[in-house]
Each structure stands twice: as C-alpha cells, then as structure tokens.
Amino acid sequence: MAKSYEEMEDSNASDQPHIREIRDPGRRILLKASAGAAASALFAPWLAGCATPASGARMKPGFEAIPIGTGDRLVVPKGYVATAMAQWGEPIGLPGNMPAWRPDGGNTAEEQAAQMGMHHDGMHYFPIDGSRRGLLVMNHEYVDDGLLHADGLKTWSAEKVRKSQAAHGIAVIEVEQAAGGEWRVVRPSRFARRITANTPFSLGGPAAGHPMMRTAADPQGRTALGTFNNCASGITPWGTYLSGEENFRNYFAAGTNLDAHQRRWGLTQNAFFRWPEHDPRFDAVRNPNEPNRFGWVVEVDPMDPTSTPVKRTALGRAAHEGAWVAVTRDGRAVVYSGEDARNEYIYKFVSRDRIRPAGNGLTAAQANRELLDHGTLYVARFDANGAGEWIPLVHGQGPLTAANGFADQGEIVIKSRQASDALRATKMDRPEWLAIDPMSGTVYCTLTNNADRGKDGMPGPDPANPRAGNTHGHIIRWREGVDGSGDFDATRFRWDHLVMAGDPAQSRAEAKGNIRGDLFACPDGVTFDARGVLWVQTDAHATQMNKGEFANVGNNQMLACDVSTGEMRRFLTGPTNCEVTGMTMTPDGRTMFVNIQHPGETPSDRSDPAEPAKFSNWPDYRPGGRPRSSTVVIRRTDGGVVGT
C-alpha cells in the first residue's frame, strides 16, 4: 500500500510553540511524592483488597529481569507462567450464539460479531466475585483485512466491509479462575457483549444535536452508529469503562476538495480502510458530518449489557488514545486524555457536579449517567521554567468566539484542535497513555516518538525535548497545583520528565536516552498497580525493529519502573512484530492480564493472508497458521503477587 496504517498524522500547521521549542526550564523539577486524600479516594473503589503494603510505602519490582526479546515467542521471568486466552475469533459467550473460530478465515460477518475482535488493546478487569471471577472489557483497535478474510484482499465486497466492521470495537467477556489456578472464558455468560462499528451510541454533552453532528440518517444528531480504532482504556469511580476513538480519519474518503476543517483533522482523498466502497456512511463527500461523530471518548457500563453506550462530547474531540479519571478533593471527576498524533495536545476535563453514590434503586453507573456531560474542558501549556497551565476551552473566552469560527460550545468541542490552536497550547509528540500514581497523584504520560523533530522545517531540540529526530520517545509527568500541591482541579501544574528512552550503545547522541536499568524504545501503554509500580509497555513499529538505532532493542516489551528512582526492569517480551498493551490485574494482585496485539504485523503487504505468517504464527503455532491477537494471563508459579 502507498501508506502504512502506522504513518502518523501530522495535520497541525498552526504556528504556536511546540514543546520542542520551550527553552531552558532551569533545573529539573522534583515532584513531591506525598500521598494526598484525593489520590486515596480515587483508587479506593477498585483497589480495595489489593496487595498494597499496610504502611502505604511504595514497593519496588522484585522479579529477576529478562533479556531483550527475539524470535516468535512470549517470555516472562523465572517463576512465572503466561497463558494465552480470549484469542481473536473465539466466541465471547453470547447465549445461543457461539460460533467456532475458523482458522481459514472463513467466519462470516455475523459470526465475527459474536467473537473476539482483532487487535486487542486497552483492557480492564471488573470484579464480580473478587479476584476469582470478573469481567474483562477490552478494545479491538483495528484489523488486518489480509488476515481477517479467507482470501485476504484479492477481492472486496460489502460482506467484507461488514466483517471488518464487526471485528472492531469493544468486547465484554466473563472470566473465572478454576480450582487449579487456570483462567477461562465463561460461556455462555449473561454479561457477554460485542460493541462494533455498527452498534448504536447515544451522544451526550454540548455536541449532542449540534448541526455539525446531524446526518441524513440521523437528522437530530443524537444517535451515532458504532465505535472503531479504540485504543487505550480507563475506568471511572462509578464502575464504567472509558475508551478512546483514535485514528478515525483512516476510515473516511473525503475526495479532492477538502475544506479547512477536514484538512485540520487529517482527512484524505481516499480511506486507508476500504469501507467507503460499500458503505456510503464513510464517504465524507456525500456525508461530510459523519467524521464529526467520531474521535470521542465513549463510556460503557459493563455490568448492564442492555445499556446504550455514550459518546461524551464534553471531553472534546481528538484522536483520543484513551481517558483516565482522577477525583478532586470536593468529589468531582477529572478526566485526562491525549491524542496520538504528532504536534497535538493533552487535555483535561473537570466535571461540574460531584460524583454521586449508588442509592434509591440506582447503581453508581446510573447515578452518574450524565456526570461527564457537564464541566470544563482544558488544554495544556507547558512553560519553560517547569510550570504549566490548563487553559479553558470555553465559548466566549479569549479567541473562542463566533467571530473566530466557534459559534457555540458544541462547535468548540467538535473543533477542539482548532480551539487549542487559537489558545496557543503546547504541541506534543504523540501523547498516548496516561497513568495517575495512586500514592502521589502525579500524572504520567507517554510521548511515543516524533522522528520529524528538527527535520523539514520542524522546530529543533531544546532542554525540554532535547533530541532531534526523536525516534525513541520519552515519558513526561506533572503534579497539579502552582506548587505541586496536588489537587486535580488546579489550573496550574509543575512538570518534568521521568525518562528519555533510547539505547546508550548508539553513536548518535539523540538516540542514547538516559534510561536507568533495562533499555527500551517507544513507550506507549503505562499503568500503575496498587503498590505504586509503573508498568511501561512499548510499541516500536515493525519497520523499526532490529534495524539501525533499534538493533539492540529487540521485540516490544513490558517493563516495571520504580518511579522514585526511575529504574526500569524488563518483565515481558512479546512475539515477533507484536505490540504489548493493555495491562490490568485482579484486586489481589495475583493475576495479571496483558494484551498482545498484531503479532506478525507486516511492514510490507497486508493484502496477503500468508504474509504475517512469514513472521509469526503465535500463539497457536499451527504450521502456516494465522497469528492471533490474544490476552495473556500471567501468574507466579507459587501463587504470589505478580511483580514482587
């Protein structure tokens, strides 16, 4: 194909400063590590019973680090066992509808809609019976159509479009631990659910019903069909699941006469995925408002399979990687998010109302069903002295007026990129996952890479982002408050960097990084466990791996980080050309779930179903078999807490 799916969007032509242009921040900012009441309250609902030290002290990783990964295998430390389950194509457990996986790719679209989708990504475990039984809710980010269909892309049809759409979205599966310790998917299950690119969603918040959201199929602009390119995940204190709609632009064909709004959002003449050929909804020439209905954070109640998922437009439209929730001292929700595109922004949303408890016949999810529809959206500016500011995206304030192209708050959230441009927020290098330290309240964000830094007129290096041609990425962190005091609704913050990824053995200074411990590149997923260990997952693309400055990096991996020292320790390496993503744990800390996405991903031709098999046939290892994204269950052989 002329363009690879991973070719990152760079549609921000505005002239405000990039984070790479920030000058000397002075000394390194040392973030305070004292735990606050807000952090404790935030994590209490879903960390109750976790293996947290009684003293509240941060624990260090306690396993023996493993070497760099090579070959088509998954490796974990000595004393651990890893087992693949919930593989692409397995039935999710819908009562009366459990089609078997066909290794030849022959499953129909209807069957795929009742099976695990492709390319597992963000994920969370919701307990039903503590750490023995619960729900795994996970994203299925995108598909390799060459693998998905029996004959790859030798032909194309409406049926293939429907099957591709059915392999996207979100899955809810019930899992339980057997007496021997092994985990299995419960089939059938009353909780089992597949949300696909054709599932009805309600629209909530200021963009609901907006003229820019209305289509011929939905003249009221209040019901959108489907979600896709769902990447990272978050959870709320009221028990719901948040998922970000990331690279939605790849699904729309906008023709040759793109307007300024379409260009700013990276739309192109033709779609990467061939849906517009048989589904006119994705023809943005005929349906110019349809792309506006994607790029949102979606909320799902996993405990109620009859509930309608909602797109929360008050959180702003973006190429959302995901969304992560904190709680203010007075009990309001704060949602952090970034968008995985070069030179875009980091956002936070603060709810107007306090979180409500369950009661009066309502579950907590029902009691807070409109909480994320009302509040204030902010975009981040990182200043040179290690300070930062959250700038409100509020209609009528500053340049956000009708005279400047923002008729109302609905238009601001639909055009959140343009609004952030106008506010001269800081352009970032692919902000992906975020994680909130349960002990200090510090917020961490991965910036995976931006190889264009310092090239083709792009801004050059500076102390805050000191490397030209940043292929390896870094992790930034901040603590809220002008003095780092930590309340999540503060409008100022203090920031620094945890680490610059890289390989100290490289000759080019910009590729060396400053890693303490085990080397890695391209940080992507980050998650804290209840003990305060930060788990870092990587996503170096297949075209980079084992070549040039990535010669010593090996396969993608997961590491544990002691954030008090910055030391990294390698815990897992994945099979060939996979991405490691989506970590979650049971409340007792004795089972870890990790997703392995797109094993065998090809850097060349995805149209041939045999192409990925040349690189990988994990986890089935069937001769000539298709590689399958899967969830990996990791446990200690002695039954202890994972990572200790």
If you had to describe this structure to a student in words, what would you say it looks like?
This protein has helices spanning 37-47, 109-112, 145-148, 158-166, 260-264, 364-367, 409-414, 416-422, and strands at 80-85, 120-129, 133-140, 169-177, 183-185, 193-195, 200-204, 223-225, 230-235, 241-245, 297-300, 310-312, 324-327, 332-338, 342-344, 346-354, 375-382, 387-392, 428-429, 431-436, 443-447, 474-480, 492-500, 516-517, 523-528, 534-538, 557-562, 567-573, 579-585, 592-597, 630-636. With 644 residues, it is mainly β. The chain starts with 36 loop residues before the first helix and ends in an 8-residue tail after the last strand. 56% of the residues are buried. Mean pLDDT is 90; it is low at 19-55.
What is the rounded distance between the termini? 45 Å
Global structural class: mainly beta
> What's the helical proportion of residues?
under 10%
Strand order of the largest sheet: 13-14-16-17-18-23-22-21-20
What is the tally of helical segments? 8
Number of strands: 31
Radius of gyration from CA coordinates: 23 Å
Give a quick account of the main beta sheet: strands, pairing sense, barrel closure. 9 strands, antiparallel
The percent range for strand residues is: 25-35%
Low-confidence stretches: 19-55
Q: Output mean pLDDT.
A: 90
Which word captures the global form? globular
